[in-house]
Amino acid sequence: MMKQKIIQHTIDFVKETLAVSESGHDWWHIYRVHKSAVKIAQNETGADLFVVELGALLHDIADSKFHAGNEEIGPQIAHNFLSTLNVEPSVIEQVVSIIKNISFKHSFTAEEKKSLELQIIQDADRLDAIGAIGIARAFSYGGYKMREMYNPEIKPVQYTCSDDYKKNTAPTINHFYEKLLLLKDQINTAYGRKLAIKRHKYMEEYLKHFYAEWEGEI
Ligand code: ADP
Ligand code: NI
Question: Which domain holds residue 167?
Fold first, then answer.
């Protein structure tokens, strides 16, 4: 099967699979990550665009947060799906490895050497968590989890292990300090970093306004 056809089948499969998912992890998250990943790949030499596209499209096919913490389901679904399209085993292997390694949780464990394709998709995924979209996703996720938006009495903390991070129920504003504002320093590629810096500044500006409005100052 032609690569373009495989991409199209994958798009259809992901849309269908994510048809019922909260808005931070829906098809449109995948759409944005796919676009950004292609853009970053075009600015990096040596990336396999086919692997980047498949990895971006399938990276959240079964997020462990929504599958009782099971981290094996996503890679398994991707493996089965790509096998039915007779995708080359070496490509499948790369995509499965990307899905296994992409999550933020993994940054708590020592990072082994990441493939360029993984670095690109990870950047695209992190970019979607910051800036205007990142703000929207955070509050959307917070609403889904019935969290407070902000509570001046609950201070942000630095998570040092992924279990505590996963268990936390803090207000959504805390998530900016616990994750979102840390992301720009975890970007792998030069082009990704350029975009991340812009989006980071926008979030800082947003937070300034948020606190000022909270106190009725502006
Ligand atoms: P991804 O699925 O992109 O790998 P996550 O699953 O960690 O990343 O988070 C998905 C989205 O939900 C991100 O935009 C993230 O900021 C948001 N999110 C995750 N945890 C929280 C939280 N505790 N409070 C607010 N937003 C959150
Ligand atoms: Ni994602």
Answer: 3-214
